Amino acid sequence: MGAQDKSPNANNSMQRVKVYRLNEDGKWDDQGTGHVNVDYLERSEDLGLFVIDEEDNETLLLHRISSQDIYRKQEDTIISWRDPEFSTELALSFQEMTGCSYIWDHICSVQRNIQFSSLSNETYHNVNNELRELPPVELSSLPLILKTVVESGIADQLRVNELILHDQEFFRKLVDLFRICEDLENIDGLHMIFKLVRGIILLNSPQIFEKIFGDELIMDIIGCLEFDPEVPHVHHRSFLKEHVVFKEAIPIKDPLVLSKIHQTYRIGYLKDVILPRALDEATVANLNSIIHSNNATVVSLLKEDSTFIQELFARLKSPTTSAESKKTLVHFLHEFCTLSKSLQMVQQLRLFRDLVSEGIFDIIADVLQSEDKKLVLTGTDILILFLNQDPSILRSYVTRQEGVLFGLLVKNMLTDFGDDMHCQFLEILRSLLDSYTSASQRDTIVEIFYEKHLGQFIDAITSSCPPNDAAQTGSKFVSSNGETGNKSGVKPEILLNICDLLCFCVLHHPYRIKCNFLLNNVIDKVLYLTRRREKYLVVAAVRFLRTLISRSDEHLMDHIVKNNLFKPIVDAFVANGDRYNLLNSAVLELFEYIRKENLKILLRYLVDSFWDQLVKLENLSSIQALKVKYEQSLESTGTRSTASLLDQRKRIDERALEKEEEDYFNEDSDEENSALAASSNRVQSQQPVLANGSAPNYHSLRLKRKLVSKEEPEPKRLLQSPKCTKPREGVFAALCSTLSQAVLPSKKTSGGGIDSPQLDANKNTIEPNCDVKGSIRSSDDNRNADTENHAKDEEASPISFSDSLHDYPDNRQRGDDCSLPPPKSSPEMAVNGS
Q1: What is the reported pTM?
Q2: What's the longest Cα–Cα distance across the chain?
């Protein structure tokens, strides 16, 4: 990269840079690429910067390192400065950050050495002795004075500053010399005076500023600065005298206030117009400090003048004040509030509260109704100043006035001002509706907004974005408040601000939006913006829906699905096609949010309802991921539903099994019925024949297995008995009497009773008597009937078989089945039977 004839040590000490020079058009010209090094100048003890061209080894730059603070390091790879010898701006752009740091350290080290050496050597003392006083201010000595002021080091600058302040006639003599040169049209002398005055200003001395910016010298100092040799002559004095007009809305009687006002304006003019490029940062900061101090002085003096403030508000409230005078007063009030920022915070807050007590908000409410749009803008600026200072002051006023000022802000936000004023109204409304305020003020203002003014914003949207049927029939239609709307009634910028305000409300008033948005179908109306031609309005509608979904409220999502509110969004997205723009990104981000947050309701709704449209853009990764997430959701839902179905079937089968078991024990089994029938046939075939030749009837004694719980009462068990045959009561009574006498005559117990038939406690019970019609009697009726029927036949018998049955109604507890006496059990029966 370096030249071939350079030694390795030289190569190591040099850094690769590009040299730039600022041209007259304010652009940087590339002077070439080479290597920079710090070395002694030829035939001098001073150090300088050498830049050698990397191609032909020619010198691109030779600069003597100055002790003045003219070097600036920018972005770690650039060193720039203004060369005082050639009055040009130069810059070195380094290839490596390390090289830039290396050269920068060398420059700083050289500057320190220069300053220390100048303080220690005899030359400094000689110069210091020479600067015991400045040369006389004459045309012949101007070059020497200029060299002393401009080329002096840091220590010399302090001495020069002291000498100028010590000479009380220095600036008066300099001004007189300027006037002589101007009269004689001595251009060279005027150029030297310009450089001298500029150098004195760059000394950055507050004491010098206080002198030259005084009322006596300021205009002549500005005259000296008109003759810049690098700029064509500009008549600054004539502009300040003829074109700049000082207007007094209220006469200011204090001369100090007037002096500070004029001085502040002139210093600002000098800083921003006359010497914008010549001043360094330290000097600009010092001038700004003077301006700030002057503003604080002016506001403090006016604030303490009670008569001035009272007269100001009296004129503003007077109906006799002309429109032009009122406009001037409002502009003065705005400037007065703006300058109050120079005060300390406590004093500024006290001033604003005093202005509120004087009725400043009433005046602003009147200003907001003005036909002059610039005057309305001034009123909104004053409101913003109060909001920035203490928002509670304005909120308290709005609450006390029941939203009169709030309504004016809403009205002006919907009004076409032609400028970007709508953003100011939006910021004011946002600050008033902010949820991070005291509860009482917040609730009142929010109530006013939703009850009175939300409909105005929605009507503005619907009037500019009519439904499809209205758009097809014509551009005019009737809005919700009964007024005839036109499609082009509201500017797109206003619609955008309305949408931003609604998004703000969604974030800060979640409970309010669930009531107002859902009941009044606000969401659907806001989505009318998707029909607008302006793409940024369509994106605003997407952003509004995205903000709603971010609340993760199931009621809102159900409302979106129920009313098919994604349809206009999907239609606009599909109509946009594969164009990669803000609309495409906004909709894809909405889909990504639904997928990542796993909002299953919206996920299924999107794919089920709009996949036929979205499939056209399936090549997009977000659409593919949405489909995959949808399929995963279906699989997980199917697994859970299958497990639930199997579990449900299992429960049903278990209940069915229990029912079958219960029915099995409650009904007659085939085996039991067949076994009982066979037993009955054997008994009939083997039954004994009575003495009269007739066989006893045992049909009424047939037993049946029945599952009966112990807790079940007797009448209920009787009602559950199956159908039975009905023998005549007389035959039954005779049979019981015969059996008790013939079969068991000697089976009496010691207690005087007989053993009753043993019945199975779990299976058998005796069937109750049934009448002819099949109606079942209760156990008590059976007992009474048996007692009456047996009274005559059983007088001789102590206890009958039927009585034993009635004595033990619950025969299940007596043992096994009751068996009839076998035919061969008694010899007497066998003899009689034969």
Answers
A1: 0.56
A2: 184
Token look-up 């033990």 returns 808
pLDDT for 780 equals: 46
pLDDT for residue 125: 45
Handedness of CA 159, 165, 168, 169 (dihedral sign): positive
Average confidence (pLDDT) over 602-612: 92
CB-based burial, 794-824: b 16+ in 10 Å, e otherwise:
beeeeebbbbbbeeebebbebeeebebeeee
Which of 553, 560, 453 is CA-nearest to residue 510? 553
Sign of CA dihedral 24, 27, 29, 33: positive
For the chain, how far is it from start to end, CA to CA, in angstroms?
Answer: 151
Q: How far apart are CA 276 and CA 774, in angstroms?
A: 125
434-443 residue pLDDT tens: 877 766 777 8
Q: Is the pLDDT of residue 794 over 80?
A: no
Three-state DSSP state, 62: strand
d(CA 560, CA 567): 10
For 319-344, letters b (16+ CB in 10 Å) and e give: eeeeeeebbbbbebbbebbebbebbe
What does the pLDDT look like over 210-244, one tens digit per residue?
899 988 899 999 999 999 988 888 889 999 888 88
Q: Residue 539's closest CA among 548, 550, 551, 530?
A: 530
Q: Check whether 477 has a pLDDT greater than 70.
A: no
In contact, 179 and 226? CB cutoff 8 Å: no
* Angle at alpha carbon of residue 458, lines to 457 and 464, rounded to 5°: 95
Q: Is the pLDDT of residue 390 over 90?
A: no
